[in-house]
Amino acid sequence: MPSDKMKAALLYGVKDLRIEQTVKPSVNAGEVLVKVRAATTCGTDLKIYQRGYVSGVIKLPTVFGHEWAGDIVEVGEGVSSLKEGMRVRAGNSSPCLRCYMCQRGDYNLCLDMMWLWGAYAEYIKVPSRIVMLNTQEIPGHVSYEEAAVTEPLACVLHGIEEARVRLGDTVAIIGAGPIGLLHLLTVRKMGAGKVIISDTVDERLELAEKIGADETINAKREDTIAETKRLTDGYGADVVIEAIGLPATWEQALRMVRKGGTVLEFGGCPPGTEIKVSTEQLHYGETTVLGAFHTTPLHFKKALNLIASGTIDVKPLITRKMRLDEIKEAFETLTTSKSDIKIGIIP
Ligand SMILES: [Zn+2]
Ligand SMILES: [Zn+2]
Fold this sequence. Notes:
Elements: E1 5-13, E2 16-23, E3 32-40, H1 43-51, E4 62-63, E5 68-75, E6 87-90, E7 93-94, H2 100-103, E8 114-115, E9 123-126, H3 128-133, E10 135-137, H4 144-148, H5 150-163, E11 170-174, H6 178-189, E12 194-199, H7 202-210, E13 215-218, H8 224-231, E14 237-242, H9 247-254, E15 257-265, H10 279-284, E16 288-291, H11 297-308, E17 318-323, H12 327-336, E18 342-346
Parallel strand pairs: 11-12, 11-14, 12-13, 14-15, 15-16, 17-18
Antiparallel strand pairs: 1-2, 1-4, 3-5, 3-9, 3-18, 5-6, 6-10, 7-8
The chain binds zinc ion (2 copies).
């Protein structure tokens, strides 16, 4: 293959994902080029693969994937913090630091966020703003696949910090997919007293049990609200985390929380959807309802440190490895498999 070409996955439309020869990016001042060693699949990618982009904003075909780690192969002029040969990961975003939200410290809500896509490829070019604010060296003992999971873990950390989980709390999580399981691993480390998790797939609940859930509820066979109440002496959970992204489960979460408790609506719902919230519940029940969007460079840093220190072990979530050439099969596998959580894509 000529050195100015590379293989990359391009999304043409719903379930139309192709591997093509594209132009290998060239590096300008402030940028670095990374040879991707592993990219991990994400629930968001799967949703886009299955349903397509909802808005017409994205021009098709488009590069795809945002959780990755690799080796720096080229360093642009003026980059002093990073060197060729360094094992790194970078976030898929970087705030501008100038807009009103950034000035208020709400970096995840930046009005001029820079995004980076294209992890399912042989190479990825990291723009200068992300080089500066959201690129880290990976310690030698951390695998590329684990390092790639920094991104979803960073999002989960942001959400859980907003929800203020406290020592001894009972936490109920709706959904045992990659995001629900990352919430489980994290609240466990934050000292949750009891963790209850619900899903419709037994295989996922079994994995949840293995990595720390105290109680599992199969929502196909059991009434999740009634079971959660039963497991909390009728009060409801201190914190409920919705990790699916459907209006029905957002509403369900509101019925699983105790008086004075917190609901973290984490999963992104389809655009244009709404939920009903009882005014009485907010008033007499003092329920706190929170949304959480994306994350910040600080949380990316914390997430990699938590993985590197072994505090949060993300390895059980990477259930399979496949080659970049098999990317379409990988997404088909995720569509049908009951036991696969995240797949490591190796270029
Ligand atoms: Zn992700
Ligand atoms: Zn900003």
